[in-house]
Design brief:
- InterPro entries: Fumarylacetoacetase, Fumarylacetoacetase-like_C, Fumarylacetoacetase_C_sf, Fumarylacetoacetase_N, Fumarylacetoacetase_N_sf, KFase/CYL, KFase_sf.
- GO terms for molecular function: arylformamidase activity; fumarylacetoacetase activity; metal ion binding.
- It comes from Qipengyuania pelagi.
- Its EC number is 3.7.1.2.
- The protein is of the alpha+beta class.
- The protein has four domains: 110 residues, Roll (SH3 type barrels); 233 residues, Fumarylacetoacetase-like, C-terminal domain (Fumarylacetoacetate hydrolase, domain 2); 36 residues, no CATH class; 192 residues, Glucose Oxidase, domain 1.
- The protein is built from 17 helices and 38 strands.
- A nine-stranded mixed beta sheet has the order 24-38-36-30-32-34-35-27-37. Strands 6, 7, 8, 12, 13, 15, 16 and 21 form an eight-stranded mixed beta sheet that branches. Strands 4-3-2-1-5 form a five-stranded antiparallel beta sheet.
- Strand 2 and strand 3 form a beta hairpin.
- Helix 7 packs across helix 10.
- The chain is globular.
- The two termini are 54 Å apart.
- About 8% of the residues have low confidence.
Length: 705
């Protein structure tokens, strides 16, 4: 029997729900996901729900309304329980059947959507709880990159790990009582630690090096194996009923000092996890081959070898950790992928039971820190410190071409922990002794101005479109100032000086500016699920678009007038080792940048047409930028092509792509040659002009140092 989850109609990426919020681009809970959880509302106790868009389907209510009549009696009874324990006990077949029924009643084509609506609860009105009481918690260690980050590489170029690591999955039994739902307060613990990792008089007090670990939680279900009875890898796969994101908090100072028998106080602080259980079926489209063992490694041990597991036991799952401060600013901490794990989930479970250990409902297994090979994929802070001390660069390479980014499984639901001053975080940062968890570490920042000045006499726009600045200086404005104060004369002012003021004649498209979708066309988003809508003006642009991770692509070697293709964009992304993420701000460095202010500037640089623009916006990019006069190829070159071909579709084609997916352009940027490809953020808030097509913007690149 093939134990891997199978693809079926529930995985159709084109499938939509009658819950509108589930169909929004980038929704965390589309109809392809349908994670299970436990919730309560005011006046009603705990019950099982399924997340869909911004709603929770109350399974007990849905059953009472007759929506689950096609399900087996034991499945219906389990769906009406106060937690997921009974459903977990019934195992994967029951969860598969129930998930298919839920998908059917939430489908936009379901005939009785009104009845389903009676069983939907607003997510913001619900309190979420642990899916089941945690009866046992085991934390594994399954990434060579996590273990080897502080040890270096061996003669084969592989991370140095303890001898046992490549022969068996390593783990330890943690404390079930420390497992909490995301949002539970985490207190900086007291313990014994050294001021420096490698020395100093031990002292007792608040942990100085509190850390996070980004992991995948593995929920065990099915009937328990009798004590003394091992299970195979194939059986282990069937025992895994679902996954969640998991943060295993670590007190590094305490951990390093006390480790002799194994983890103790340093790892019993808190384990926080997502309340939603993403079923194994939901992740079926993202199953991948197991980690490719280097030739120098030992063979997979016989009790952990399974052909199907080697072929599809891995999971190509993009994982991220970030911090959000009290005012909503996001800071990325880690971007990794679960496919880098040396051992598969089924191997971890099978080895756990290989000595006859009985695994039962309520058992939770942490995958171990899910670090990848690159610095950016270090899934805890201690790895970053170790790597940085060895001279690693912040702007690192990251390849993640085929990550789980299709509808339905891009995000399991982030593990959020609330800190005392209002931040939402997925980790703790290192702070001084005695500080409460929540003190914000303020890194030194370096800023690079990417804007050009508005000035007279510089070729920055076509003839007749240049800005005009009239300067009024201190020596000729004293009478102007004195008029506001009866009886005051100009010579009574200090040094007889007035004020400096300027009058400017310009358009919203002079200088460095941001274009809104209204500039390109009257409607936008024809291609998106919600359909066509009036284009946004500059005062309607979401602020979150304007402060995001920056990416610079270098096209300075391309000739003037060249229209960049999607293949050329992908080749440049491959060269810099970057995978685009929604809301990345993508800046194009062209030959126009070096020609700013010189004759012919408006005709310099390559451009980006419809194909390249949609290639970016379909990946979630909403702000792009160029150092040229226009995002499209310069008009003089496009005019020649139009004269040759008569093809009107090439006219302003990059701008007109905004009809299909609305986006913003930054034009006439400066200094892009100073930027590395990645490793910085971009701030580009436009001036707010009511109903305007564009707004001037002071664009800045920000580096944490």
């Amino acid at each position: 029997m093939n134990s891997s989850p199978l693809l079926d109609v529930t995985h159709d990426p084109a499938r939509l729900s009658h819950v509108a919020a589930a169909n929004v681009d980038g929704a965390e809970f589309p109809i392809q996901n349908l994670p299970f959880g436990v919730f309560s509302t005011q006046g009603r106790g705990r019950r099982i729900g399924v997340a869909i868009g911004d709603r929770i389907l109350d399974l007990a209510t849905a059953d009472r309304l007759g929506l689950f009549d096609e399900c087996a009696a034991d499945v219906r009874q389990a769906a009406k329980c106060e937690d997921l324990a009974e459903l977990f006990r019934l195992g994967r077949p029951a969860m598969t059947a129930l998930r298919r029924t839920v998908a059917k009643v939430l489908d936009e084509r379901f005939a009785d959507a009104a009845t389903v609506g009676s069983a939907l609860v607003p997510m913001n009105a619900a309190t979420l709880h642990l899916p089941v009481p945690v009866t046992a918690f085991t934390d594994m260690c399954a990434s060579t990159f996590h273990i080897g980050r502080r040890r270096g590489n061996d003669a084969h170029g592989q991370p140095i790990c303890p001898p046992a690591f490549r022969t068996i999955p390593i783990g330890y039994d943690g404390r079930a009582g420390s497992v909490q739902i995301s949002g539970h307060p985490v207190t900086r613990p007291n313990g014994t630690w050294q001021p420096q990792h490698d020395g100093g008089e031990p002292r007792f007090g608040p942990e100085p090096r509190l850390d996070y670990e980004l992991e995948l939680g593995i929920w065990i279900g099915g009937e328990p194996n009798p004590p003394g009875t091992p299970i195979s890898v194939e059986q282990a796969e069937q025992r895994i009923v679902g996954f969640c994101l998991l943060n295993d908090w670590s007190a590094r100072g305490i951990q390093f000092w006390e480790t002799m028998l194994g983890p103790f106080l340093g790892k019993s602080i808190a384990t926080t996890l997502s309340p939603w259980v993403v079923t194994a079926d939901a992740l079926a489209p993202f199953r991948a081959p197991a980690f490719a063992r280097p030739p120098s490694d030992p063979a997979v041990p016989a009790h952990l070898y399974d052909e199907r597991d080697r072929a599809s036991g891995g999971i190509d799952l993009a994982m991220e950790a970030w911090r959000v401060d009290a005012v909503g600013n996001r800071r990325d901490l880690c971007r990794t992928n679960f496919r880098h794990m040396y051992w598969t989930p089924a191997q971890m479970v099978a080895h756990h039971a290989s000595n006859g250990c009985s695994l039962s409902v309520g058992n939770l297994i942490g995958s171990g820190t899910a670090s990848g090979p690159e610095y950016e994929a270090a899934a805890c802070l201690i790895e970053r410190i170790a790597t940085a001390s060895a001279g690693a660069r912040l702007a690192c390479r990251w390849r993640q071409r085929d990550a789980a980014r299709a509808r339905g499984a891009e995000r399991l639901s982030d593990d959020r922990v609330r800190r005392s001053h209002g931040e939402r975080v997925t980790c703790a940062e290192m702070a001084g002794p005695g500080e409460k968890l929540g003190r914000e570490h303020r890194a030194m920042r370096r800023l690079i101005d990417l804007s050009i000045p508005i000035e007279n006499g510089v070729e920055s726009d076509p003839p007749g479109n240049e800005p005009e600045v009239t300067y009024h200086t201190h020596d000729n404005t004293a009478p102007m100032l004195a008029r506001f104060f009866e009886g005051l004369t100009a010579d009574q002012l200090p040094d007889g000086e007035g004020w400096a003021v300027e009058r400017v004649r310009l358009s919203t498209h002079n200088g460095t500016h941001m274009d809104a979708p209204w500039h390109y066309h009257s409607v936008q988003d024809r291609e998106l699920p919600g359909g066509e809508r009036p284009s946004m003006t500059i005062d309607e642009i979401p602020l979150e678009w304007c402060w995001q991770r920056g990416v610079k692509l270098d096209f300075r070697d391309l000739p003037d007038g060249h229209v960049v293709s999607t293949d050329e964009i992908d080749a440049e992304l491959e060269r810099i080792g970057h995978e685009l993420r929604p809301l990345d701000i993508v800046l194009m460095n062209t030959s126009a940048g070096a020609a700013y202010g010189q004759p012919g500037f408006v005709s310099r640089g390559c451009g980006f047409g419809r194909e390249a623009t949609l290639h970016l916006t379909r990946q979630g990019v909403r702000v792009v930028g160029t150092d040229a006069w226009s995002w499209d190829a310069p008009f003089v070159h496009t005019a020649k092509r139009y004269a040759e071909t008569g093809d009107a579709s090439i006219v302003w084609e990059g701008h007109k792509a905004g009809r299909d997916i609305g986006y913003c352009q930054l034009e006439k940027l400066g200094g892009l040659e100073q930027l590395p490809p990645v490793g910085f953020e971009v701030l580009c808030f436009p001036v707010k002009i009511r109903g305007a097509s564009a707004g001037w913007s002071r664009v800045v690149a920000v580096f944490d140092e």
